Amino acid sequence: MSSNKYSIHIFLFSSEYVQDVVVNGSHKRLKMVDPNTNDEETLVEDSSIITSFSKISTALFYAAASMLITVVNKSVLTSYGFPSFQFLAICQMFMTIFVLFTAKSLGKLKFPDLNRHTLKDTFPMPLIYLGNMEFGLGGTKELSLPMFTMLRRFSILITMLGEYYLLNIRPKFSVKISVGMMVSGAVIAASNDLGFNFNGYMFVLFNDFLTAANGVFTKKKLNSKKEMGKYGLMYYSSLFMIPPALILLYFSGDLDKVYRFSYWLHTPFLIQIFISSIMGFILNYSIMLCTQYNSALTTTIIGCLKNIFVTYMGMFIGGDYVYTLNNFIGINISVIGSLFYTYVTFRPSAPSQIKLPNTINI
To answer: Would you give the DSSP letter of residue 2?
Structure first.
């Protein structure tokens, strides 16, 4: 049921007809109300509304997954005093491999089999994942939560530059303003940080660079013509990352600490280890979805936005935040910039109206 100009598909939901209208390749939505009385209400909506929903829902999914895994990991590493974040990360990698391999074996999803080109097709994603894990957790350990979240704002600027040079994406002026506010606020806060820690700053800045690289290369890989897809990227990135992670675990001395840990027969601890492993897979999946439906820059900023509550709560917990007026002002400027970016990015565009001919032959 199509012509050169219009393609119309009719579906029946309860007592209403819904037509999916495609005009010159652009999806519109036409709603026909109450066919029994022939009363018709035509509501034509631009597909940007549906696209906006996908963008917002995937962003919220990523934010929720990121916050939840932070809580679970904090419980395992702090409440139980588990000695190795590296071992925990390896558990998350193994869970990702297990879930995706099982789903593929059952025919629930598809991704390419391992071959001699697979490493080349996924590179440099495994190295980026591994570096992100090491430097991110190292920065968390060395810095107060407010300063950690502020310095993470630099990943936004690096991501924007990476999108421009590698993906040829030119940000809007309003996006540049919001990113400028976030970064300038972080600079103001860092310029008067009485709790300055050189190692912590270096860890976070390396983490910023790798976060930006992760977002940009994920977007590039997902947009490429190769059939790796998001599931293949997740599976093989975890698979190739495990050997170097095991080497780091061994030479760091954590393996012996893990072996001697006293809660291995404690059921609540084992449950939380399992949940953390599952959440590692869910977090990686949410990052892939958010990057696929949005931009690498948006995914990076959502990662910073979800830390807003951490920023303020961190002023009262942990005991390592040192208040100064400039530092506090800089933090708030950066937070306002984050909120402004959210507004200019996720506000839906105005629905466009199209005029259909009075008679359509179907």
So the answer is: B
The encoded tokens of residue 50 equal 């549906």
pLDDT digits (tens, 9 = 90+) for 236-255: 888 988 988 899 888 888 88
DSSP E strands in the chain: the ranges are 6-13, 16-23, 26-32, 45-46
Closest C-alpha to 46, from 289, 354, 360: 354
Map tokens 């940009």 to a residue. 216
Distance CA(272)–CA(294), nearest Å, equals 31
The tokens 């393609």 sit on which residue? 7
For 96-144, the pLDDT digits (tens) are 999 999 999 998 888 888 888 888 888 888 888 778 777 776 676 667 6
User: Of the candidates 38, 133, 55, which has an alpha carbon nearest to the alpha carbon of residue 291?
Assistant: 55
pLDDT tens column, 312-344: 665 665 455 566 787 788 878 888 887 887 777
Amino acid identity of residue 266, one-letter, is: H
Cα–Cα distances in Å, from 310 out to 148, 164, 233? 10, 30, 30
Which single residue is written with the structure tokens 């005009």?
A: 23
Would you say the pTM of this structure is higher than 0.70? no
Query: Rounded distance, CA 91 to CA 275, Å?
Result: 10
Let me know: does 354 contact 23? Beta carbons within 8 Å: yes
